[in-house]
Amino acid sequence: MTVSIIDRYLSGNSVSKKNLQLLGITALLISCKHEEIDLPKINDFTYITNNAYENNVYYKNFLSTTGKEMKKIEKKLNK
Asked: How far is CA 59 from CA 1, 35, 51, 64, 77, in A?
């Protein structure tokens, strides 16, 4: 499901190489939201990325911007 979300997002948007990992963990979070009973915490995703984005304002902004786009994809998945 994560790969499908990334594919759908990249089909209509361009993402720099620097932000591709952020897109991946955002898609993973959405996938977990649909598939898992107990959601992982954001800190778990920070750990997965080797703390590359810990307490980074850019990371938070990217997640909020990407989140808006991902909500559109999420609605399509629910249909």
From this structure: 23, 24, 11, 9, 25
The torsion of the CA quartet 74, 27, 41, 64, rounded to 10 degrees, works out to -70
Q: Which two tokens stand for residue 55?
A: 């307490």
Its sign, for the CA torsion 64, 16, 40, 46, is negative
51 against 23, higher pLDDT: 23
Q: For residue 13, what are the contacts with CB-CB under 8 A and spacing of at least 6?
A: 69
pTM of the model: 0.62
